[in-house]
Amino acid sequence: MLAVVIPNQHSPQIGAVLTALHQQTAAHQIDAIIVVGQDHTGQVAQWSGVDYIALPRPTPPALSRDIGAYLATSEYILFLDADCIARPDLIERLLACHAAGQSVVSGSIWLAVEAGIQGYWTACDNTLVFAPWLHHAVAGAQPYLPSCCLSVRRAAFLAAGGFGPHHGVGGEDIDLSLRLRNQGHLLWFEPRAVVEHRHIRTSAVAVWQHLRGYGRKHPRYWQAYPMLMPTSHRIETLRPLAALLVGWSLPLALRDVVRLYRKTPVLRRYWHLLPGLVFGKSGWYWGVAETLYSEA
């Protein structure tokens, strides 16, 4: 029925990811678990029944996902990142959506603010990167879906060419989403299908650098996917404002975060995240400005 494909690059969480999959309420519906990449922790080898495709060198996640998908033979493929811990009913929820007629379904990211500074910055990063796909968001069609917890009918995935045209790091989920949309597939978001995203960005510097990296990529997204971006985000419009983006990064970030809180009322219970969100978002503006400068 369903194969799980996990791109892995020495993730310290891969053991927990595999444990959660074996504890699924619908574990009997999982035909195969395919881990593709590298694992110097040795955690994958400890599991029987897991197909481990060891690669000789570090590989972008998109390529690792394609390798696993082409080896799979199940009707559906769940792409799950190596730091995403599935809730026990994840597979059950995703398959229910497929049974209802959805060919492309994304799960949600659990937003939990754990005690301590690491939990604080983990929550800030998840909020800034995955705001439209947090567990308290509303189910429904989305313009694009993240690939960290994405279940796709294999035939549709192969017909779209997989992640193939975009094997770089970042943007492959948008690219695949648009090709699936062009084939007539609805991109469905199911917030009740939940994963916990236990990433390694647990400090202010790590979150700022992560968002800065996203910012560097976004001007290229605006060029590649103009149908998803407002006119005000066109590169030719923003390039003369690159210096202002740096100088005004904190006020602009504060504006964006306030808008996010207004748009997502449930976030208001996490008002204490506001300084961290503003700080992280300011890194995004720095990254955008850097790319605009370099391409001027």
Characterization of the model:
- This protein has 296 residues and is an alpha/beta fold.
- It has helices spanning 14-22, 61-71, 90-99, 117-130, 154-159, 172-182, 204-224, 235-238, 242-247, 249-263, 274-294; strands spanning 2-9, 30-38, 50-54, 76-80, 84-86, 104-109, 140-141, 149-153, 187-197.
- The chain has two domains: 2-197, Alpha-Beta Complex (Spore Coat Polysaccharide Biosynthesis Protein SpsA, Chain A); 204-294, no CATH class.
- The protein is built from eleven helices and nine strands.
- Strands 1, 2, 3, 4, 5, 6, 7, 8 and 9 form a nine-stranded mixed beta sheet that branches.
Overall number of structural domains:
2
Task: Write down the overall geometry.
Answer: globular
pLDDT under 50 segments (min length 5)?
none
Q: Calculate the terminal CA-CA distance, rounded to whole Å.
A: 50 Å
Main sheet record: 9 strands, mixed
Second CATH tier, the architecture of the largest domain: Alpha-Beta Complex
Overall CATH class of the largest domain: Alpha Beta
Overall residue-averaged pLDDT value: 89
- According to CATH, the homologous superfamily of the largest domain is Spore Coat Polysaccharide Biosynthesis Protein SpsA, Chain A
Which H/E pattern describes the elements?
EHEEHEEHEHEEHHEHHHHH
The number of distinct helices, counting runs of at least 4 residues, comes to 11
* Class of secondary structure makeup: alpha/beta
Regarding quaternary structure, how should these chains be classified? single chain
CATH-derived topology of the largest domain: Spore Coat Polysaccharide Biosynthesis Protein SpsA, Chain A
What percent of the residues sit in helical stretches (DSSP H or I)?
40-55%
